[in-house]
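In this section we walk through a basic example: taking a raw amino acid sequence and producing a predicted 3D structure, encoded as discrete structure tokens. The instruction is simple. Fold the sequence below.
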Amino acid sequence: MATFVLNSVNRSARITTKRCFSPHKLSTLARIQDVSVTPFRSATVHRWSSLLGAKWLSRGTGVRFMSQGAAGGHTPGRTRRAALVLVGVGAAVVGFVANASHFRRAEMAAERATQVAEQVDDILEKCKGFLTPPVTDIQVLQENKGDMCTRMEMLIMETQAEFVRALEKVDGGKFKADRWQRKEGGGGISCVIQDSNVFEKAGVNVSVVHGHLPEEAAKQMRSRGKVLKGKDGELPFCAMGISSVIHPKNPHIPTVHFNYRYFEIEEDDGSKLWWFGGGTDLTPTYVNEEDAFLFHNTLKEACDKHHPQYYPDFKKWCDQYFYVRHRGETRGIGGIFFDDLDSPSQEEAFGFIKSCTSTVVPCYLPLVNKHLNDSFTAEEKNWQQLRRGRYVEFNLVYDRGVKFGLATPGSRIESILMSLPLTAKWEYTHEPAEGSKEAAMLEVLRTPKEWV
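The resulting token sequence is shown next.
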């Protein structure tokens, strides 16, 4: 069988790593000359899918990634063969180099080359599971695979794909994947479904933006106690995150929101400030003790893996943050919320974010399935519309993410306002009847409870 050999040369030890590819990948790589050194100018679907040995199919408004199995992919066997080639080359070097230290350097170079090949293949394999190519060019991600920005982008792309597929399975409809670019730097992928079978409007958005922090956005950072030292009034930054809001048609299925993000700023002396933020919260139309327990307990278990105070502290923070002050009530029954998380270390903070994103499906999809076929009355639907009005009020008046997005040049308004429901309602001086289910819900919103 014909194979294609890709040479990767380590300049310090002059060791060549031979990588073998299938005939399928031979034909695709042949169309992309010097793929190992030429950066992508645009992450088009054709070139990206060719590199991965995969095929992109568009069906209606949905976007699907169809893997062709092992064709063009990485397998453990190939990695082992590459490692054996490297060991053999390292042994040959010994015959020409008398100094033992030279042999050790060659051996270490061979080990590094093997590790690099495995990490690059790992990124390619993960990308095959995404709904679209990542926001950042795939080769840039490979070249910076150890950076936190790369690792966070891979995490949010993976979370987006997992959640969208879970929602599509229960709804039966297809999300529209809308890719957009920001001329100042970066872009995003908005996956949205509207007026479908189960969900009236649902969005799962990823954004990766970079450039220089505008003054208005910098003021918001300073108001939170951030001491930012820019150069000539400019602050290079990189921000990325995933944000989702799900508005179901059935008033007995709660609305859910989650957002997890990473922010990095480079100061005038070249040092970097970084922090994570985010949270998950639930907004039901009616009180359901079992639902509230499942939701909060799932979040608590994820928090407890990292620190016993995370859940109680972040639950309280959530109740305080998602508070509609002019109404004197919370937006929903809470969850967790945190910001400016920069301790105990970057690695441990990232580990916590990974635990949080892993709760997205198990804390919400059981609730959707549980109430999927619940019957409801016109009065219950009307109450849902009124509660959505409160949701809109919070997002437009208080939400920090919306404010930051609107203050950032080049932001995509459609993606920022994706969180708003398709329909909502405002009635003048509406008050639920005493002793009603609606009044019970309002009481919980005015006096937050401990659900776990």
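Looking at the output, two observations stand out. The chain has two domains: 4-127, 147-446. Residues 1-51, 53-98 have pLDDT under 50 and may be disordered. In the next section we compare this with other chains.
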